[in-house]
Each structure stands twice: as C-alpha cells, then as structure tokens.
Specification:
single chain, 185 residues, alpha+beta, three-stranded antiparallel beta sheet, 3 helices, 13 strands, globular
C-alpha cells in the first residue's frame, strides 16, 4: 500500500473527481493510497460472496449486494474506502437512492477479503471504520486459512467460522445461510 504524497489533505469530493490514472485507490484521512492488485483467490472469494448475497437478495427480498464501490467512512479528514463486498437492507439505503454519487451510508454488512499485501492492523482499521460509520457487522474473509471472522464492534473478539461451519442466524441478515466452504475454491 503506497501513500501518494500531497501538498494538502484531499476531500472526498476532490478524490472522486481526481484522475489518478490506472490502479486501485482509496482516500485515507485525506491522503490518496494506492492498493496492491488482488490475487486470484481474493477475486474468487469476492465473486462467490457476491453470488451468495445475490441469491439471498432474490430469495429474501431483504436488500442487495454491492461490490467495489466508493464508500465514505469518515469526514474531516475524509476517508473513502472500497469494500470488497457489502450488503445493504432496503431500509438502510433503498436501491432507488443508488446512482453516480459517493455513498455515505454504511452498509449493514461490510466485507473485506484479505490479501497477502494487507497487514492485520490495516484490516482491523477498516473493520473499525466500517463499524464506526454505522455498519452492523464487518466480515474479514481469509482465503489462506479459509475462514471468516465476523465483528460486531471493535472491542469484542470476532465470531470465527471455518471449513464446514454455516454462517447463519445473523441478526442483520434474517434467513441468511451459507457454508464457509462455499466461499473458497
């Protein structure tokens, strides 16, 4: 993760208008950060999660899934993240409100898939940001250990699911069920 030096801190609005060239970027406390390209196991887990949530969306009508979009998590200095996958209930952010604009409403569930380039501290910082912004849960998905850690606040240890465990009975996802093994190749 490379920080691109700037003369002054950038706002979320400036970040969204900026032509940063090729690559993936986030704005972290007013500074542009270039993200490392993800590996195929990261992409596979993101794709699977999007599919799992799409099926949940169709069957439950509870909400919808977004992936790789711009979410403002903090103001002054501004932070704009790009969660790998998120789930929104219609009550939190109606689909009709989506458009070509920066999302400022935290998802019900924010999901980050760990890559070798992510440090533990970096991932936990993102979890804390999502929860502080109002997410009900933040998931850290680990392709290397084929596990999922679900956080509800920054102070309590996460609930960890592995292998054949089923992720179900999540209060923000009524009727949701998925086996951890469905997420990984």
């Amino acid at each position: 993760m490379a920080v691109i030096p700037a003369a002054r801190l950038m706002t979320a609005e400036e970040f969204m208008r900026a032509d940063l060239g090729d690559g993936r970027f986030e704005l972290v406390r007013g500074e542009v950060v270039e993200l490392s390209p993800p590996y195929s196991d990261h992409a596979f887990a993101c794709s699977r999660l999007s599919g799992i949530f799409y099926i949940y969306e169709r069957e439950s009508g509870h909400g919808y899934c977004l992936s790789e979009y711009s979410l403002q998590t903090r103001r002054d200095p501004d932070t704009v993240r790009g969660p790998d996958v998120s789930f929104y209930s219609e009550a939190r952010l109606p689909r009709s409100k989506l458009g070509p604009s920066l999302v400022t409403v935290a998802p019900d569930v924010a999901i980050e898939v760990a890559s070798p380039s992510n440090s533990k501290a970096e991932l936990l910082e993102k979890v804390a940001e999502y929860l502080a912004a109002g997410s009900l849960a933040a998931w850290l998905v680990y392709p290397k250990t084929r596990s999922v850690a679900i956080f509800r606040d920054s102070q309590t240890p996460p609930e960890v699911f592995k292998g054949g465990d089923a992720i179900e009975n999540q209060p923000e996802l009524p009727g949701f069920r998925c086996l951890v093994s469905e997420i990984f190749p």
